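Supplementary Data S3. Sequence and structure tokens for construct A.
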Amino acid sequence: MAHHTVRKAYLELADRINRFPQGAPQTDLLLRILELLFSRREAELVAQLPVRPFTAARAAAVWKLSVVESRKVLDELASRAVLVDIESDEGTTYLLPPPMAGFFEFSWMRIREDLAAHRERARSARHRARAVSATTQPCTPQIF
């Protein structure tokens, strides 16, 4: 039964994202992606946010949290690029980016530290491969 409770947060978030004009139909793949991007608590909170841009005070009212607590959550989400934060003279406005090409990929570029390690290993392997190929005879492709 706990699995259904946990999954419910992501189902509600998927439903929230689907309210955008572009929509994002609820699929197992979408739910798995959301599980990677959001903790269960974050999914529960973000599912309650308005579709239009909002302030930390508005989020605080919706979430029934203090503005300070809400801003902390919003800033954490924005630091991982799953929320957009727009600074102006009036303060910070937040919004959940609409589902479109690059929506998830942009956030993964920001939060996937493990990918940075993979990129470094791949770069190092390419460097070693170039060094080896520079010291060996060129290979003539064979046609089978």
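Construct B, processed identically:
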Amino acid sequence: MIVNVTDAGAVVIEGTGNPSLVNDQSEVSIYAGVTLLGFLTGVGTHIDANGEYTTQSGSTLKGTGATSEYGNVYLDSQSGTWSDLNLFHNDPETEEIAGFVTSAGALSGSLTLDLSEESALLPSGGTTGEIWSGNSGNLGELIGYYTVVVPPSVSVSSAASEVTARQSLEIAAGVEGGGPYEYQWKKGGTDLIGATNATYRVEAVSTNEAGVYTVRVSNPAGTATSDGLTVSVNQIEQTVEIEAIADQEYSTQTLTLTGAASSGLGVSYRVGSGPATVSGNTLSLTGVGTVVVVASQTGDSDYAAAPEETETFVVSQADQMITFGAIADRSYSTNTIALSASASSGLGVSFHIESGPATVSGSTFSLTDSGTVVVVASQAGDSRYLEATSVTNQFEVNHASQS
């Protein structure tokens, strides 16, 4: 049973399906009714010698199976310190049923009372009390409970309104006014689907949960919306590391970069300075010098961007080697020879005659007489490669036959 005391001049008693009214009368028909025990907080001023308060017309309050409503009402102060509210059937004689099962069903309907003369003694919202069968002087048995309601007042609070992403968030509603309550949480004025409990909880928040939260609370007496609670969600700090890179020779054309972020998010790389390029996590060397590689992680909705980390190493000139195959002895009749040699660097090889009857132009070798010829292949190097060790070939030029 709900009793709405918002307006003392129109106190509404409403059946809510509970209690199921069994034995709601005494053996004497005049006591066919129920009592809200200790309803007023003091002795009512409108109790006359007979205890009668008023007879209400227009009442629809009754239980299933009853032929008349609860319309006869009076206050009684058996205790001398509070006043009970007694409700009787309009026709107690017809409601006296053998076995005391008057209105053996759920209570429904409502009854409105003018208790303005007792306004100072009305119970506050949230007060609960017992409902007994019979009247104050002839109580039968406890059959249920009543709750006093007024329009709710509501506030919201949280142990922490500033949280870090992936932590839990819980906001609680503090409500007064008497239940039952219905809740609807909102963020930015928009209903949060399924958020209809006294607390709103998110197990692992993300930054998109930041905003202003309110809760709308309703009870049988009205509706109220709380002031807003502003929730801030901070991103998680993260760090990034890059694996150390040893100094390199230019002969190492590519390197695989390895790094990690504490967030578990992917790491990006770029060349801060120096002769290199990067694609994904592959670093390609383009020359000799000092290379600075920068590792970064830009963050996401939960993680803030990590401070960049750098790794510095030196690329030095690479060694190279010349391959110059042996030249077979030959007769003077072979006037020219095409020389062939290669450097491991891929750079061009140069030739010169150290001694003997021959000349060279580019890679073309020309004989000028018979004798011992010494040819030298060399590669001077460049900014990337050191000078190669020269390779020497020696062969004999024999007199040519004639006829």
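The first helix runs from residue 92 to 95. The helical segments are 92-95.
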